[in-house]
Amino acid sequence: MNITEFVELSFGEWRSQRSAHHLAFAHYEEVISTINIEQIAVDDSRVAELCKLHNVDHNLAISPFKMSWEGESNWDEDETQEGSTILIPISDSGDLTKGRLLREQGYAETIPSIGEFKINEDGTFVLVTKYDRAAAEEKIWFVTPNLRCRVSLIKTSNGKGVTTASYSSEIRSLSKS
Q1: For the whole model, what pTM was predicted?
Q2: Taking a C-beta distance cutoff of 8 angstroms, is the pair 32, 49 a contact?
Q3: Total structural domains in the chain?
Q4: Could you tell me if residue 58 is inside a domain?
Q5: Burial tier of 68 (Cβ tally within 10 Å: 0-12, 13-18, 19+)
Q6: Is 177 within the bounds of a domain?
Q7: 14 occurs within a structural domain
Q8: Are 112 and 53 in contact (CB under 8 A)?
Q9: Rg of the chain, C-alpha, whole Å
Q10: pLDDT greater than 70 at residue 82
Q11: Within a domain: residue 51?
Q12: CB 129 within 8 A of CB 152
């Protein structure tokens, strides 16, 4: 699998159930959410803007997409977690199994970020992103075309300590037509 195939397989609406262990707070959290992943055109102005922000040639953009989410957590039951971000895979070498992932909004910190991705021989997408105060490692793999799993670690900025560990199962919502 390469990044184009991985992104195309990800399009759609997903129901996600995430279990997170916040080690820094000694707290366990359950999050139920809906995630929408949709293709955006390479010539979309948002792609050009995000590439410019990161000083990346927008001609290197591969399969840009938008991810939006809305969910509820048992940690703060009165607050809905929601947001969206533009993501742009970049392959500097032409090898579509590794490269950079530009994000309008990061995972560990809500700032623009650039992560390094690779897709292992078994099809697992691995993303490592260094932020100002933390680092994130995410792995996503498809069990079937409509079921995928995600594990995430949020680490200290030096990468030696883990502050949060989470596991998600995500099931694609299928149309009833």
Answers
A1: 0.90
A2: no
A3: 1
A4: yes
A5: middle
A6: no
A7: yes
A8: yes
A9: 16
A10: yes
A11: yes
A12: no
